[in-house]
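dumping this here before i forget
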Amino acid sequence: MEEIRTLCDVFFHNIEHLQRPDLLMAKRNGAWQSWSTEQVARAVEDLAYGLMGLGVKPGDKVVLISEDRPEWLMSDYAILTSGAATVPLYPTLNAQESAYIVNDSDAQVAIVSNLEHAAKLQSQRGALKSLRDIIIMDAPAPGDGSLLQWDEILARGREFAAREPGLHRKAASAVTPEDLATIIYTSGTTGVPKGVMLVHRNFVENVRAGLRRLHVSPADRALEFLPLSHSFERMLGYVYFWQGLSIAYAESIEKVADNMGEVRPTIMAAVPRFYEKVYAKVMEGAAQAPFLRKVLIHWSVNTTTAWAELKGNGKSVGPWLALKYAIAKHLVPKKLQARTGGRMRFFVSGGAPLPRHLAVFFWGCGLKICEGYGLTETTPVVTVNAEESVRFGSIGRPLDNEEVRFAEDGELFVRGPNIMKGYYKLPEATAEVLSPDGWLATGDIGHQDAEGFLYITDRKKELIVTAGGKNIAPQPIENLLKTNKYVVQAVLIGDRRPYITALIVPNWGNVLEYVKSHGVKVSDVPKLCEEPHVKHLFEHVLERANSELSRYEQIKKCKLLPREFSQEEGELTPTLKVKRRVINQRYGQQIEELYASTVPEAVSCA
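structure:
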């Protein structure tokens, strides 16, 4: 491992020492297709030569807009081994957002997956200052020469290679650990995105340390479905490639459950929303089951959770609970394991805090979730729970090549070889978060226990400061609300306000079951938001949550929303974090209605 210094070295290490017939897998025309190590190596070399033939030089930037697929990985390694830097864009960005990043990054070439993404860039052609060429992976390119076909560029690359044999390897060997590998534009929950500059050393050292915490081997198979344009899944992709795993790409988020059963992965990463949906599916199944089966499902879940709370924390499990668990695990846990393909060794969770009850439940089902923490600026992993030492509610211990410390206000600072070079063309913004001696201010509030495990409680900038001067962390309260089976999403409101309120997106499936049992025949969701029985139900939801909160944290009112927040509507980041600024603007009228009167004596649903 020690001879690996750049991501170019990672690539050549794999193709020279870890040959396999199923290095990459993806579903095409309804069937799973495999790409061998030899096929991947050939495509990367051809594309790298093709890019050099287009004039791409060391230090140049190449934009990559694509869903997760084998060609994403091939494009990334082709860009890197040609000496250039990858600028990944989320496929969900609109034309104006895409054009902003293309211009800001000074990219001269773009690789896109399909005509839709190509059209976004072409619609902004007049505003694009540096972009020369667009390469498209799918579909025949128009005959007007405005787009270059993937196969055409690979063919050109082969011709170039015949004239300049050895140039690709020479270019890759010239790349140093301090050379720019990528500029990743942070989506952020507020403001204009900033380009995070990460060098080869950042990734290599983060992967190297991560491999000492999470043990993977060529015997594993990973399923990837989080966007590779985000640093979390991308870094894991380098982990997998370094160790020679078989990597399968899910068809889509909606198809992940089916794909798990088909490719039977042993490792997969996801954001907390994925685990929430799996858990909600179990609970919905219980709600719709006949009485006896409903009782058995709830008994299995409760027994599994009670067993995991003790076992997972290293405490002894009494004989009675052990006997109950031996029976209970054949109900919900075994079925859940089967749905994941039956071979899952562990999940990895990141992107947002994982609710503790989910970590406990999955652990009890034999599906450990190794929760980690990091930022794009930290490449991204700072901490992660090891497979053999999970602490529920914790984000794990820092990787062994990183330092952490906490400021007086609880803000976490990090230093190590994974810290970004800075924000592209933004020296003042860089200086605001990165000290001359290498400490990065994360903006996250937390603490560390005596055993070295870290806990994050909230974002520093998202703390709510009430009109009474009380500081309130919204995320723990939002997570508390989401443990209720009638709540899917929740956003706490109250900054500079006299009391705390919440916007709540109900689990309408469970709500419909509730209203039917109370003789209500309304099924139209917008009308259900105003239905008295539903409002009364959510007053009880608030009361239950408030019973676990301090007086100044308690939620006085809530407003029900008919649909979930989404990326398509610009309300969630690509890692499914709520964009609070957007929510506050979009639902401004509803929020004002929550504060139209004085502090209510009892909770209410407006």
